[in-house]
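Before we proceed, please read the two lines closing this message. Report back on whether the structure tokens fit the sequence:
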Amino acid sequence: MDHRSFKTPAQIFVDLAAGNPQRRMAFDPAQRRAALQALSRAIHDCEAEILAALAEDFAKPEAEIRLTEILPVQAEISHALRNLKTWTKVRRVRPTRAMLGTRARIVPEPKGTALIIAPWNYPLALSLGPLVSAIAAGCAAIVKPSELAPASAAVIAQIVDEALPADLVRVVQGGVEVSQELLEQPFDHIFFTGSPRVGKIVMAAAAKHLTSVTLELGGKSPVIVGPGADLKKAARMIAWGKFANAGQTCIAPDHVYVAKQIEAPFLAELKAAIARMYGKTEEAQAATRDLARIINPDHFARLMGMIESAQSAGAKALTGATGEAQSRYIAPTVLMGTDPSMTVEQEEIFGPVLPVIPFDDAVDVVTRIEAGPKPLALYIFERDRGLIDRLRRATSSGAVGINVALVHYLHQNLPFGGIGNSGVGAAHGHWGFEAFTHLKPVLENRFAPLAMLMPPYRSGRMAKLAQKFLR
């Protein structure tokens, strides 16, 4: 329920939606800037509470919180503040030949009241990042954080309380039943981040009201390590990308295809990279503060079940494959000898488990990738530009990282989003602003020869005019 009152989610929606006409007239770019600046200050002032909340929810390391939670939101705010004047500017459009005598422009207009449903894995960034775009566009919003990260949800509510007026943004906390009640309301835009399975439910609910959606989903993001890769750099980047937030990242490397001729040296570098980051022994890794924990016992059990099922079917662990249920710790795990029949190769892993799959021919890798749902990200590690370009052109994915993992998320001048099963629409920067914006075309007649084309059509003069316009 609403953390500021006993109103139901439906009543909160009605309150915000009722102010839409007035807000559209009054919430000008200067007021949007002020709201974004207030949000930035509140995040800064609540940094200690943010660190404590994420540590409580799943023991996320402080440096990782700053890098992956606070930095993306503050960067999104800074980018919006720098560009808001340009984004909100009315754009004049040149007439086409058939429209000579008219004046046209595109007017960015807020869609209205938005719903932001955020996941648990990056609770701050994935709640407040879309909110930045909504405010920049001039929308009111209800933010629904995940109930699986309750301490983080509470601090998100605190930040919004301190920064933003109640007639602009509300945080509504609760479980699935709250999300269901919210999805019954006729929002003007829904921004959802989560699994493809729930994304389909959100899209079906939005369809009842013909509400536009942005769906940031996920899937099995593959990595291809080619024969010409810089193995030390590739191994270090893949290890960081995979095990950051204990692998609970929608764009984390899900599995690695490695050219067979470099398999052994790559695995040696990967093992060394894990040791440098998290400890050389199992005891050191279990004690490290640099590795987050799994969000809850159910997810822990699912991941350990994946590992045990793969091992019982013949897979071997190069590292890890151990866990401790009470603290929800799973060691950084690299699996060899997996096959397509195993759950670990069929389902999105979303944890610190990395299958490594050798290949002889890159064509086979492309065939396997294209046979499955389109991934949110594809990572290629290689120095041969020709091979990189062939792999990029032969595959379809939300984004491509070349000799890098995860970092494209932080680039505000790039759209972030999936394709097909991995998402609908795009976020960040100008793309996030446009997700919450209706680009309204306005056409004004000055001296257009439109009256010459009106009935009656039977005269020879009209036929000649119509032919002239066609030419």
